[in-house]
Design brief:
Helices cover 82% and strands 0% of the residues. It is an all-alpha fold and 279 residues long. The protein has one domain (3-274). Helix 7 packs across helix 8 and helix 9 (203-211) packs across helix 11.
């Protein structure tokens, strides 16, 4: 069986398995909580950066999603390889005429579909509602948000598969995933704030330290569309507006997570092809 025939079969198998898993319920609840909270908050009369109504909903949801999404992606992927090894799934699947990389491709793509698909539907629903209410400028903001969350999903699904490829047990994989999420969403911010409080750092260095974290890079990309002058970033925003500009800032916010995701998948594939698949 060639890869052209094996991958669609394995993709259907992994999608069916993903839809039966408990983590899909976690994904649905996380998205429902975020969208429900910010639809209620965003439709109030107050405004942020001139955004009101559904445009404010999209902006606030996007900023909340970049924090929740890494956890969702890691929960969906960090057990993929180690669990399949210990449960004997590889003994069943890989006796078929397919390569290891075919299963890895199908497993990763199924996770991305389940993670990004509901978000895309929710954003499209907001876009339709905005057009119905006469908010014609909502389209570019929705498109930018979708591109950013898709890139961030790719990054953390790749990280999850890499962590799963190096973990010896399911418990270790869970610990690795928790540390990765805390490091990207909490510890990095504390470390960056500590550096800024301790030393007088140039704006270029502040941007580099922030953008090195894919979560912060995604947040920069979203806010660069909300405020083209980048004044929301303070002195760093003045440096960005005069050095990079909103377009290049957006490109960095999307491109860097894609690079991290591609590198993580490459490492996961190398480990996956070198290790024993029988636990």
């Amino acid at each position: 069986m060639s890869s052209m025939h094996a991958r669609p079969v394995l993709l259907r198998f992994e999608l069916a398995d993903a839809l039966r898993s408990r983590w899909v319920v976690f994904v649905a609840l996380a998205y429902l909580l975020v969208f429900g909270a910010f639809v209620w908050l965003g439709l109030r009369e107050s405004s942020v950066l001139g955004f009101t109504g559904l445009s404010r909903v999209v902006l606030n949801v996007s900023n909340a999603i970049v924090v929740v999404l890494p956890l969702v992606a890691l929960v969906s992927s960090h057990q993929s390889i180690v669990r399949s090894r210990t449960t004997g799934l590889f003994e069943l699947v890989l006796v078929q005429p397919c390569r290891r990389v075919d299963w890895l491709f199908a497993a990763a793509l199924s996770r991305l579909v389940v993670i990004v698909g509901p978000l895309a539907l929710a954003f499209i629903a907001l876009l339709i509602a905005g057009v119905w209410n006469g908010e014609q400028a909502l389209g570019p903001l929705v498109l930018r948000s979708l591109v950013v969350v898709a890139a961030l999903s790719f990054a953390f699904v790749g990280i999850g598969f890499f962590l799963s490829s190096i973990a010896k047990t399911s418990e270790r994989a869970t610990v690795y995933a928790l540390v990765a999420w805390l490091g990207a969403t909490v510890l990095h911010d504390f470390a960056l704030i500590g550096v800024l409080l301790r030393w007088h750092v140039a704006p270029a260095i502040v941007f580099g330290l922030a953008a090195a974290n894919p979560v912060e890079a995604a947040r920069l990309a979203i806010l660069s569309g909300a405020d083209p002058d980048l004044s929301v970033f303070g002195p760093v925003g003045f440096w960005l507006a005069n050095t990079l500009g909103p377009r290049l800032t957006f490109a960095v916010g999307v491109g860097w997570p894609l690079v991290i995701g591609a590198a993580s998948f490459a490492l996961a594939r190398r480990n996956f092809e070198r290790t024993d698949l029988v636990g």
